[in-house]
Automatic annotation (TrEMBL):
Stretch forming the signal peptide: 1-22
Family to which this protein belongs: Belongs to the UPF0065 (bug) family.
Organism: Ottowia testudinis
A Pfam family: TctC
Highest taxon listed in the record's lineage: Bacteria
Protein keywords: Signal
Gene3D superfamilies noted in UniProt: Bordetella uptake gene, domain 1 (3.40.190.150), Periplasmic binding protein-like II (3.40.190.10)
The name this protein goes by in its record: Tripartite tricarboxylate transporter substrate binding protein BugD
Amino acid sequence: MTKLFKLTLAAGAALLAAGAHAQAFPASGKTITLIVPFAAGGPTDKVARDLAEALRKPLNGATIVVDNAAGAGSTIGTAKAFRAAPDGYTLLVTHIGMATTPTLYRNPGYKYDEFEYLGLINEVPMVVVGKPALAANNWQELNTWIGQNKGKVNLANAGLGSASHLCGLMLQNALKTEMTTVPYKGTAPAMTDLIGGQVDIMCDQTTNTTSQVEGKKIKAYAMSTAKRVTTPAIYKDLPTLDETGMKGFNVSIWHGLYAPKGTPAAVVKTLNDALKVALKDPEFIKKEEGLGAVVVNDARVNPADHKKFVASEVTKWGAVIKAAGQYAD
């Protein structure tokens, strides 16, 4: 057997092996981990767990687990995903924080544009909510109360860079008033104190507020989106902040799916194809709509469009954060 023939056989075998490896993803018995850079029970955690269920079928019944790696405004978990092996078995589910950390943190431990973008998942409205004992029963009354208590209103958020923090910044700017900001280490403790009356108001995602509003544990006053939210029905009579006179106020929180840089193109395609199937899953859509979220069904489910969208959000939120003068180290 000639040397050239042996080399040809070896090259052919390598190509076949590579092809088999690509086709085998996800390999039988291997677990896919979705890293969520927030605490269990929070809005992003709920989205990730719903998505994990919807992804199993298009990924050949793969075992998919959620790893909550919370802390430092989502940077700990996101950096963990950034450093993970680029093999498709460790992914990241995160929210708008992907677009705010470039301004909030000088060195978050990763670069937002050096992930493999897999597609946008959903968009979530924000709602201004208040403690149950608050005298105000509608937005007009709440606005009056805030005006009468300038400097005394306690505004909770889930920590620097959280959705509630960003919405709170825009709310204060639109109202032209400063509130006493009370940051927490996550959405759950912030909501607990709001229910208990230790803080006055918060602007948070409907994925976190819906069950509390329905259970009358907190009060809902206004929506952050340009159009009214009609699903779930608990929000259908609430005005938008734009309607109340804050023209142009439009904030929704989105979630996306990412893989470490260098993940093979074939694996990226497999994951993106699976995501597109999951986003059309009736049960997934039903769960998200029940929380007030809207499942994405436009071009942003494609990796290139997803990345382009996030870059535009980096610019948008960078201006808001700089204007507020709120930076981290």
